[in-house]
Here is the input.
Amino acid sequence: MALLSGRNTNTSTPPIHDSSHGSKKSSAATPLSRKTGDNAASISSRLGDSLDVVSRTIGGNSPEAAAVVIVYIGSLIDQQMIHDNVIQPVMIALHANKEQSSGLKMLELLSRNIIATGSMMAIKTEEEALEALLNGFCVIFVDGIEEALITVTAGGEQRSVNVPITQTVIRGPQHGFTEDIYTNLGLIRRIIRSPDLRLTGKRIGRRTQTNVFVAYIDGIAQQSVVDEVQRRLDAIDIDGIIESSYIEEFIQDRTFTPFPTVMNNERPDVVAASLLEGQVAIIVDGTPFVLIAPVTFFKFFQSAEDYYQRFDIASFLRLLRHITFFASMLLPALYIAVTTYHQEMLPTTLLISLAAQREGIPFPALLEAFLMEITFEVLREAGVRMPRAIGPAISIVGALVLGQAAVQAGLVSPAMVIVVAFTAISNFVTPHINIAIAARLIRFSLMLCAGLLGFFGIMTGIIVLLTHLAGLQSFGVPYMTPIAPFIKSSWKDILIRAPRWAMKSRPEVLGGGKRKANASMPDWQRQKKPE
Amino acid sequence: MDKLSKYQIVVMIIMFELGSTPLFQLGVKAKQDSWLAMTLAACAGLLLLWIYLRIQNRFPEMGLADLLRVHFGKLLGTFTGVLFGIYFTYEASRNARDFSELTVMTILQQTPQWVIIFTAALISLYGVYKGPAVFFRVVEMLFPVVIVSYGIIVFLLFVARLPNFHKLLPMLENGIGPVAHAAFPDILSFPFGQMIVFLMFWHRLAPGKNLGRTAAMGYMIVAILLILMNALSMAVLGPDISALSSLPLLEVVQLIQIANILERLDVFVTVLLYIGLYVKMTLFYMAAVMMMKNLFKGSHVAWSTIVVLIICGLSFLEPNNTVRLWIGLTVMVKLYTLFQIAVPILVLVVGAARGLGTKGAPPNAEPVGEK
Here is the structure.
């Protein structure tokens, strides 16, 4: 675990003889040799003599018995840093070193006085050396002692911090997470400058050895939730973690549900705000998507922007989002039910207009709706996957051929095109894509219900859906909180976003407690009475 | 076992008692005084509620099954328990049949009834299978929908100037006799006496909460709501049409026509009654399952399946709606009285005689805890 301590974090010299380190693997460990040449050759061969493994021999009389050998993997390290802070100082020091000291004395000399990097540690086995190398450390073998030094020199090209692509806001911070976990941790730490922010790391993935950090704020997050997250992470045994969705699938509460019980987010501000409300974040190396748990259904309808805009417009937009979410699930089903079973419900003029449109349409409404919905799903998928250069072709095909031409050819009614289009647009209003996906899937089953039993079918579908939702939990928190179970104090931030001074307490299910002492409108905001 | 909150109990009482009640113009025998009959029955129902609460408060941790065993001894208690299980099942089956009759009468005229009954049974099965904690949460979610919808209907009725409260006059035209006759036992047993089913669920209230006040609050709210709805619908339709109509609330709502766009709101009503029937049916069904499970062990899934099959079977018992209503109003009302009034009073008396529930008096029979 000490290897995770990261770049530039540990500035004091660590104990040279770290007894706890590597104890787990000591049973099958190969001890280091006294000869630097043997060590370097052995390490290199265990890495398959890969071309990017560099071993730099310094000093000594022959390559086999060099005074110091520095081994690193060229593709994982920062060339500038290893040159300036490790190789050069060592060479200068060895050149000036008249007494030709070696062994432990040399090791301590290098560690204390010569190598200018942040953290440094001594190791005793080849396995530790390999692990260090693969994490971007460089290993420094010293002649005459069965120990070696490792120090962090990780580097290489990384995508720089950019505007988040999936969750954009008009007002608010414009930086998103990157693929580099230390950058991401830094982005969070720079928002929450509290000593109570806890970042505990672990390695997951037998082959990939991916760094995974669990972040929470001590004293706000519930310890039981933190423990449960750790427990579930520890239970993961898999070859590799490529993206945080791997972790999500392992730690989520239920597999057979369209609803996500873990949220992912690309925005440091949202993650920081979640931590401040008592949630736990899981940061995975190699992906900009940070997991947040526990979450409730309504969290997925909160956009970061809600908190950066005035509360009135934010409340309006949030209500709109909830409504459009249900519209995107229900609208085609309602259309099918009304046109197939309950024509009498429509006002007469609307009924006549719809009937005129449907005249000559060869399909029943259910089939018509299915055709159009599937068509839209195909268009959407094509829009995401196609090469950017042929983008305009999709819009032409979509708009002209499938919309206008299909109506003119008498295959679908114009009203159906409107319904499908509105449904599709509604689906994009939801700020978190993974709950919008749930609505997409449920839409089809509700359409089927409506086609079979009309309104009765839709009601049945909704009751089943609600029962399913009521039974869901996310890390012990009922998914539909605070509506079911009802928690009054949490309602200020659910369907609407109350003014900030009114939101006095943190969400109760996530830990609760006061987030600030004042909870009344400041006196300078009160309307002055005319004198 | 997840504990229920006070709010959940209140909401469940309201939703359960609302149930299918507005479907029928209760107390129509008392003509324009139907709402007085409702009031009378509600007051008597309050007395029943007090009895139920007294029984529950003797052993706050026990469900009805254990309460019966403690009071009547193992053998007799089990026997009464089974009778109650059958009673709950039968009530659930009547609700299932209500479901199909209502749906076929209103929105799906050509669908065979068995399709509706099986669909209703399936969603109830799902709710029961998930257990009381989940079902109470479902009802919590449905509650705002129902209350807002009733609010909208009432608001629109007034906007359309439909209620004419002169239709409620003269009060007590023929004295108190017809009112009392309409109230007892019909209205008392449906819906107010059905509160007996909560003896299966009250013990799940989180400890340290005042059950009596909670239950009484829920009961008062829903009683007032029901009386108001009854009076309102009588004020719209008048005693004559109310007596003739099979679904008076539907007739009331169909009269709403505002600005050529707000019309045909009966689908609103159908949705409301759908929710009400679903809640009622599932709660009875769940009570039956809990009862049998407590009495005879066995798995939750097994009992849920058995009971749902019985419910489906029972709901086909009557050949048509007329026979069904006749049986309900003549034969069953007397049987209901047995379960809702006679047995609880007996339990109360037996318990008092044996000094149960007072401090230091341990229950004789082994309570069979759930799970």
